[in-house]
Structure formats: C-alpha cells, structure tokens
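Lab notebook, design round three. We kept the backbone fixed and only want residue identities now. Task for the bench partner: fill in a sequence for the structure below.
Input structure tokens:
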C-alpha cells in the first residue's frame, strides 16, 4: 500500500494536466450511501426497485412516489466534503488538476471549492419547472411538501439524469475534451459499469492512468497503477 501511494505521488508530481473522474465512492466517506455496494440504495427493499423509481417514465407517471423516495434518499444538502474533495481543490489551486468529471449529483466538489466540475448526471442543487422553466434551488425542493410545484402551477423536476434520459451533450463533450488533453487520468470510487460514463476511459491517451477503488473494475488491466483502498486513506497521504 505504501509503495503504491509513493508511486501515485510520483505520478502526480510528474503530471501537469490531471483529470479526476469520480463516482459514488468519492462521497461515501461524507456519509452519502453508495448505490451498488451491499449497503447501497440498490439493496434496500422498496415497493419498487430504485432503478425503476429513478426513471423518467416513473417520474412522469408517479411524481408523488418519485418525490417520496427522492426526498428521503437523495437529499445531499446536509453533507460536507471529505478529504478527497479537499485534496482535489489543492491540486486545482496548484495548477495541476484541470478538471473533475463526476457521476455524483451531490454538489460536494463545488461545496469544497472546486471550480471546473463536469457533472455527468446533473445536480440536486438545480431544479426547473417543466411548464415555465423557472429555476428552483435544492432547498426549495427538499423542503416542499408532496410534489414540488412552481408558482405557475407546474411540476418541478430535478436537473438530474434519470434512467431513460440522455446525458447533457455539452457536459459530455467537455468531459471528453478534458480527458483527451490530460497527461494523467485518475478514476476513483466507481465500478465503471455504468455506460456511457464508463466509456470515457477510452478517450485517454496520456501517460498515467490510475484506478483507485475498493473493488476491482473491468478496466484494471488498462491502468498503470491500481490501488484497491478507500479514497480517504489514499488522499490523506498526498
């Protein structure tokens, strides 16, 4: 473990265009539950599967049940950034980290102070009325009773990418561009099983590819360095 962290530090020192691509494992140490771990949302028992509840068609057809689950399980406003978020801010401030690409919707990277963040799956902090497109913040949605409604009477929808929806093309293109231009790509806290996000690794042509995840991923064979450890333990040593 120590040898791997030393090797990781050496790679960081030699790189000047670093991109960090993170998943749920980045936020679990802030207390936010992971989706696919044995304690995650996908292994909790509900009347419907979480994957069904968090789909576009379910939101349209059952907004009340969608919001009951969403408010109960997806409210990340009370959580604070952890050591990984903080160290990434330091790397960005030092001019080494050029972009963060995240699958998370919790806004913790921005809360920590990161400036260049591409949110592939949107954010709970942004919400819009489906009727008049008026903006509402996360606090308004999570504190509302029942289905959050706009002053015009329309239903408010979170700017999160639900199942059956496509990723924002502008965000995706910017993420791809940053990976193509990077000399080091750190992929952390993700099982790399969700497409199209998992396909982003194929755009990397730089020098160092590092995978940090508690469990193995299907792309470990591509990496220059694989660290199977919690992110907090790795980043507290940087």
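Proposed sequence:
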């Amino acid at each position: 473990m120590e040898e791997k962290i030393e090797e990781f530090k050496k790679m960081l020192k030699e790189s000047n265009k670093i991109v960090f691509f993170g998943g749920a494992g980045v936020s679990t140490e802030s207390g936010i539950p992971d989706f696919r771990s044995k304690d995650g949302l996908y292994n909790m028992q509900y009347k419907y599967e979480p994957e069904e509840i968090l789909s576009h068609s379910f939101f349209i057809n059952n907004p009340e049940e969608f919001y009951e689950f969403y408010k109960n399980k997806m409210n990340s406003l009370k959580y604070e950034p952890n050591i990984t978020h903080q160290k990434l801010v330091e790397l960005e401030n030092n001019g080494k980290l050029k972009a963060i690409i995240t699958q998370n919707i919790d806004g913790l990277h921005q809360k920590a102070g990161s400036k260049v963040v591409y949110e592939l799956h949107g954010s709970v902090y942004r919400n819009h009325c489906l009727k008049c497109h008026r903006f509402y913040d996360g606090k308004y949605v999570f504190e509302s009773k029942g289905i959050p409604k706009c002053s015009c009477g329309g239903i408010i929808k979170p700017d999160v990418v639900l199942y059956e929806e496509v990723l924002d093309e502008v965000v995706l293109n910017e993420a791809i561009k940053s990976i193509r231009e990077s000399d080091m790509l750190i992929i952390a806290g993700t099982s790399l099983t969700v497409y199209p996000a998992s396909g982003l690794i194929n755009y990397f042509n730089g020098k160092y590819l590092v995978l940090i995840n508690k469990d193995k991923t299907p792309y470990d064979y591509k990496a220059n360095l694989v660290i199977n450890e919690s992110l907090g333990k790795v980043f507290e040593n940087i």
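Keep this in mind before ordering anything: The chain has two domains: 1-31+80-121+166-238, 33-75+124-160.
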